[in-house]
Amino acid sequence: MERKVALDIHRRSLFVLIMEEGKQVLRRRFSPDPEGLAAFLAVIQPGDRVVMEATTHAFRLAARLESVGATVLVLDPQETRAVGMKGKKTDYRDCLALLRYLDEPHPPAVWCPDRRTREIRQLTRERFAFNQSLVRLKNRVRGLLADEGLEPTHAPWEPAGRVWLETQTLAPVTRRILERELAAIAVETALKAEQEEELAQLALECRTTQRLMQLVGFGSATAVMCLGEVGDLQRFPSSKHLVSYAGLHASVYQSATTVHYGPITKAGRSQLRWIMVEVAWRHVHEDGPEAAYFQRLVQRGKCPQVAIVALARRLLVLVYTLLRREATHRDLDLRRYEAKLERLAAHRPEATEPEPCNRDWAADRLEELTGQTAPRRAASRPRRLRPTKRRATAEGDPGGSSRRHGRGSASAARDEADAPRESHATPKPEEIARGA
User: Fold this and answer.
1) Cβ(330)–Cβ(292) below 8 Å
2) Among 140, 145, 180, which Cα is nearest to 161's?
3) What is the pTM of this model?
4) Looking at the predicted structure, is the pLDDT value of residue 262 above 90?
């Protein structure tokens, strides 16, 4: 008979409730360590229907359950958190509430990412942690220098800034703190460079990532992280669903004929929202084709932070359209796109057999993805000159045929000078009659 299994997952425990034909078969708590997980998988049978909430290590556990033949349903915790909390809240009552969703035709289920997507999402979280840590360290360095009344001409963590810092008179304690902060920045920057190398290797293998790099603001790292957060694009029927998934759509309050729209809901993947805001800022700084939209909003009186979120939503719609249709961006700057691909080609691993150089590799990818000629190849091709056909000018129409064929008066004069002395003009009708 079919068995129903409900899991209440915690960081330090795993509560399991198994029901068969309305009767309780198992009610037990397991530890999340490898031994406890092995004991839990031993009680699962092929064909069991398992339900759980999306929480810590839920997707990893769902993959293990599917490998032993169980059918897994992962629910959205925002839709199920109020269920089973009437009067008393226990793990047992929560599992009973989760079992009800197995019989519903449209449960609030979430998409379970595969292992590769989960690994990319872990890299995204690592990237976010690196950025936050570097921002805090750099702000502390700026604060220490501001306390000393100094305004650096270059960033103190760059070579030119380090040279400038050596020439300044600082208190011994301040200089020691600065040295430690700058050493921490150097370590964090080196670790971030290693992660960028790993993301670049993933971008080299994915044509979709290279297509997404057509948009200004997307590099190889941000394109890989964006695709990892989006996951399977086919599960979004329209761009509005993707915008809602990122939490970039406006909140709404409706009652009868009254409708109010407010700020964005932020109900979605916060990492995807962070990536799109970072891409939007870079799009503005590099004067991308959509930067005018941001400038218009600012001129109307919008706060720059509000305008940049609106631009992030607009760019996310472009991402959906570009990838869903596998099209070329209509405002694509071929030279900028080719330079991006050339920088990506520099991360290719060394091979024993000869391969195309970085420029040729970038040109091949550009022509493959856009169907257009690479700018470098177009500039290197010799220009073909069309042969000029010289025609005699009829009497009474000096230079007329030259103008009809795109040549000016100077070309017509040269044609006249080069023409043979004997006249080949067509005789007039009255001359023909006279000759007859």
Assistant:
1) no
2) 145
3) 0.79
4) no
